[in-house]
Amino acid sequence: MTGKSTTFEVQVLQDKRWVLAEVAGDEANAVAFADNLLQKGNHQAVRVVRDFRRMDGLHSETVIHEKSADDRKKGDLSVVPVAEAPMCRGPADFYGLSSRQVIGRIFRRYLDEFTLTPTELLHNAREMKRLADKDRLLFSAVDCVSTLQAQASGEDGKARRDFLHRAWDEAVARARKAEPDKPPAATTPLAELVAAAGGEDEERAYRCRVLMALCLLETRSWAGKLDRALAWATEEGAAAEQEVAGEGAPARMALVDGVIADLLMSAQLIQDLMGFQLNLGTALCHMCDLAAGQAEPARFAPEAFGALNRLLAGRVLPQAREILLARVIRELRGANPLSRNEPGREFEMFTQLLDRLIPYTGMVGGPAAAEAVAQRHMRLHNVGGATGHAQAVGGMARVLGDCCRQTHYLLALAASSLSPAVGTMAIEALAQVGATATGIDAWAPRRLSPRDRMAALAACNRAITAAAVLPEGLRADLANLTDLVMVRYLEDEAVIEKIDRPDDALALRAIRLVKFCGSGVLIPGQSLDRARRRVIDHLRQPQFEEKFLASAGDPAQGERQLREFHRLLVESGFR
What we know:
This protein is of the alpha+beta class. The protein contains 30 helices and four strands. The protein is 62% helix and 6% strand. α18 packs antiparallel against α19, α21 packs antiparallel against α22 and α27 packs across α29. The termini are far apart.
C-alpha cells in the first residue's frame, strides 16, 4: 500500500511536450488508464510518473511506465482467424469452456500482450472496456464468430452479430455490477473469496470468478498466475466435491479448474511448463503424459509442473486436461514436423504419440484426435485425396497392430468430421476385423499381463456397444465376438479355476471370485455369466456361511471376511 505522500501522474506526449492527463492514487489504475489512452490512438506516447513528497516538502519523480504509439504499432494485436465457433445461446454458454477457447484463440495476440486469461477478461468490466476501445478488435472478432455460427446454424448473420454484441454489453454490465467496493488482495485464499461472494447457484459461482479475476489481475506473468491458481487448488478442502458453505454453492475445484484451463491456453506458459524437449514429438508426448497425470518433469521445468501433474492425476481438472489434449490435436493436425532436426525419426515420434493417444482404454481425445492422426498419417506418406484416406484407414491398422487399438481408432475415425467416405471405409475395416480376429492374441498382445489382456478386451467391448456410428447388426456381431473371445480365453487359460483353487480356504476363494466379477475385466454376457455361476454355485452349497467362517480359522477374522464378502456381493450386482 502507498501512503498519501505518493501519487501517480498519467502524462501524454503532445507536440513534443509531456502534458498531465490524470492523477491517480493507485499504480495499477494509473497504468491501465495510460494504456487505455494510448490504445484510443489520440496520443503519441503515454507515461506514468510516481510522485513522492518527501519529509522536507520536496518531490521525487520516477517514470515507472512508458509506451509510445510506435511501440503499440509494433505488436500485432489483430484477431487470429478461427475455423469453428460453437453456438452460444445464453450466459452459461458465454462463460463456458468452448466459448473461452474461442476467445482465447481469436484474441490470442491481445491476451498475450497484456497477460490476460479469458476468465479475467470476461469477469472484469475495465478489461472488457479496454479491449472494446482497441481499434476494431472487438468488432472484427464478432464478425468472424457470428459468420461461423450463422453458417453452422443457418441463422441470419446480422441477427447473430447483434446477439453477440448484446451479449458482450450485458457481460460488461454484469461484471461492473458484481465488482466489489474493495478488491481482494492478490493472495486471498479461495475459501475467503467463496465466503465473500454471496448469491446463490450460478450467480454465486460467477461472483467467485469475479473475485478470482481481481486477484489474478494483480499478477502480470503467466507463471505467477499459475502459482496463484495452484495455491487455491491445494488449499485444505479445495478438492472436495462441494467443500463450500451454503446450499447449492459451487465446487471450489471447478472454479480453479476453469482458471488453470485458461492459463494452459497460453503457448508461452506451455513452453515453460514443458521444459527442454528434443522436438515437437517429444513435447506432445510429454503433454499427453501431463494430461493423464503421469508425466515426469523435464529439464528446466518449473516447480509448478509437479503440482499440476498431481492434480491432473487426481482427475480433478477435466477442463485443464481438455485444453492440453486440444493443443496436442491441433499440433498433430498441423504441418510442423514432429522431429525437425532428425527427419529420420519422424515416424518413430508418430508411433510414440500413438501409444499415448490410443491406449487399450480407448481413443484419447475422441473423434477429433482420430481425425488428426489420420491427417498426420497422410502427411507422413505425402498422399492426399481418396488414396490418402484409404491409407489412413488400412495403413493405420497395420501401424497399430492388435485389434483392440485398431477398433478404438476406427470407431473414433468413423465418428469424425472427415468425409463420409472415410467413415464408410472405417466401418468396413471394422467388419473385416470381426471376420478374421477370433483369438485373444489378435486382440491383445501376449506382452500384456492376463488381467490387462482381459481389461483391454472388455474396454474394447464397451466402446463397441456405445458406438452409435456402427450399424446395429455389426455392433451386435462385434460385441458378441469380443465376448466369445473372452470366453475362449477363460477356458484356454483356466482363469476361473486358478482363482477358485480347491486347495485354498473357501473364504479366500469366494472373495476372490466376487472381486473378479466386479473388477470390470469381464464382458457382460457369456464371460461374466461364467464367473458369476461359479460364485452362485458356492452360495448354493449347504451351510455355506458356516463353512465360510470355519475356513477363516479365527472367528473374528471370519466375521470380518463374511461382512466384506456380502458387501462385495452387493457392489458386484448379486442379489
